[in-house]
Amino acid sequence: MKTTTLFITCLIILISINTISAQYGNNGYGGNGYGNGSRNGMNQMGGMNQRSEPEKPKEIPAEEIVAKYMEDMKPAVGLDELQSIAITNVLVESVNAQGRITKLNLSQEDLMNEYKALAESTDRKINNFLNKDQKDKYLAFKEDIKQPKKKKDKKKGQAPENKEK
Fold first, then answer.
1. Given CA atoms 25, 30, 36, 41 in this order, what sign does their dihedral have?
2. Which of 18, 47, 68, 115 is deepest in the core (most CB within 10 A)?
3. Are residues 74 and 140 in the same domain?
4. Is 71 within a domain?
C-alpha cells in the first residue's frame, strides 16, 4: 500500500511540475507562458502602448545614396578616380544639406527655392571638376536621370515595331 501511495504521490508531483513549468514557459520564468509578466508579457503590452505612433523609416545614409548615383554617373560622364572622389564629396554634402532643409519648418514655396538654390550650387561645384566634354556629358546624364521612364517606355514600344518590320 505504501508503494502505491508513494507512486501516486510522485505521479501527482511530476504532473504538477510539468503543468507549472508549461505555464512559466518551460524554463522557469523565461518563454511565452503566463509567469513571465515581469519580462515579456509586460513588455509586449507596454510595447503596444509605446508603438502607438508609427515608426520612422530608417534613413538611408548619404554615402549609400551617392554611391548608387555615382555608379551610373562615373561611366556616363567618363570620370577619373580623382574627379569621382571630389564629386562624391560634393554630392554627400548636398544630400546632407537636403536632409537639413527638409527638417526646417518652411512653406512649400520656400522649400522649393531652397532645393533649387542647393541644386544650382551643387551643379556649379561639380562643373568645376569637369572638362568641357565632360560638362556636356554631365548635362545629358542629368536629362537622362530626369526622364528615365519615358525613354525606357519608348524603347519598349519601339522593340515590337522593329520585330514586325
1. negative
2. 115
3. yes
4. yes
Phi, psi (deg, nearest 5) at residue 24: -95, 20
Overall pTM surpassing 0.85 (yes/no): no
Does residue 50 fall inside a structural domain?
Answer: no
For residues 132 and 28, what is the distance between their CA atoms, to the nearest angstrom? Answer: 74
- The answer to whether position 36 is within a domain reads no
Distances (CA, A) of 152 to 71, 78, 98, 138: 19, 23, 28, 20
Q: In the predicted model, is pLDDT for residue 148 greater than 90?
A: no
Residues 84 and 144 in one domain: yes
Taking the CA atoms of 94, 99, 101 and 107 in sequence, report the sign of the dihedral they define: positive
To 5 degrees, how large is the angle CA 10–CA 13–CA 17?
Answer: 140
Question: Domain total for the chain?
Answer: 2
Beta bridge partners of 146: none
Convert the pLDDT of each residue in 96-133 to its tens digit: 999 899 888 888 999 999 999 999 999 999 999 999 99
Whether 162 is in a domain gets the answer no
Question: Are 126 and 138 in contact, with CB atoms under 8 Å apart?
Answer: yes
Q: Report residue 103 as a C-alpha cell.
A: 527638417
**Domain range enclosing 75:** 62-148
